[in-house]
Design goal:
about 270 residues; globular
């Protein structure tokens, strides 16, 4: 029991530290939120302007919602991915990586704290963006299946935590190029996950990659919830595999991370950044 209490306190300490980092770099957080908000509005205005662009009558409200769902869900999932995958880069930037990795705190505890912070902060930013964009376009979500949407967010969070842990290994193995590699991985996920278009529009070989991205299924089913009022029961065939696969990747990711961490300490890669 005392061990559980200590680990819980350790996880909360990482949540609190990330909150203080947000306060310290509040200017950058404000800039990135503004950029994310403007990007969401710009993409959504593409849907609003399609009737004028094509010269053909179409359901622009549906297009607005289609693009908005993809943009917001990707913004949320990518925040979880980046918060975990860039954990090593942040430690090096702050100059605390040796202190953190030598502290008597287990790595799963650090990852739990980082994950809980990322989910909470991601939900807050996504809801705030949704409220602002909804005010611009007067969106009506009264008929949407919000309960199913929350369930999908949870399933997507689990799957992207696993991907983030796996990606966090790269900065440990490659101090000079690891962060660039995680950004390249995120860009590939953005391309193939159907954020702005159906994956059926992609070439066949990219569609195969798209089927391996959990974001593909989260975004597709989220659109079914919010645009077509799909019942929660119909989502379970997607939710359970996402959670199962996410848990499996988390377990494998923790195992790989711990081995790579020991390798990085032994070869002097922990502190080195260039």
């Amino acid at each position: 029991m005392s061990r559980l209490v200590n680990e819980s306190r350790g996880a909360y300490a990482f949540i609190e530290r990330n909150v203080h980092l947000i306060k310290r770099y509040w200017g950058w957080e404000l800039v990135w939120f503004f950029y994310s908000l403007v990007n969401s509005l710009a993409v959504t205005y593409i849907g609003a302007g399609m009737e004028r662009i094509s010269g053909q009558p179409m359901d622009t409200q549906y297009l607005i919602m289609y693009l908005l769902v993809g943009t917001l869900i990707w913004s949320y999932l990518s925040m979880i991915f980046y918060s975990i995958s860039e954990m090593i880069a942040w430690e090096r930037w702050e100059g605390t990586i040796e202190y953190t990795f030598m502290a008597p705190v287990s790595r799963p505890t650090q990852l739990v704290g980082t994950t809980l912070f990322a989910i909470g902060y991601g939900v807050f930013r996504t809801l705030l963006t949704l409220l602002i964009v909804a005010a611009f376009f007067h969106l009506d979500l009264s008929q949407a299946n919000l309960g199913g949407a929350v369930l999908l967010l949870f399933a997507g969070s689990v799957s992207f935590v696993g991907l983030g842990i796996m990606a966090a290994v790269l900065p440990l193995l490659y101090p000079e190029r690891g962060a660039q590699m995680t950004n390249a991985a995120a860009a590939l996920l953005l391309l193939v996950s159907g954020v702005y278009y159906p994956i059926a529009t992609l070439p066949g070989w990219l569609q195969w990659i798209a089927r391996g991205s959990p974001a593909t299924y989260v975004i597709d089913q989220m659109r079914a919830c919010l645009l077509h009022r799909a019942p929660t029961g119909s989502l379970l065939s997607t939710v359970f595999p996402l959670i199962g696969a996410g848990v499996g990747v988390i377990v494998v990711g923790l195992f790989v991370f711990q081995h790579v961490e020991r390798y990085a300490k032994r070869t002097g890669r922990l502190k080195r950044s260039g």
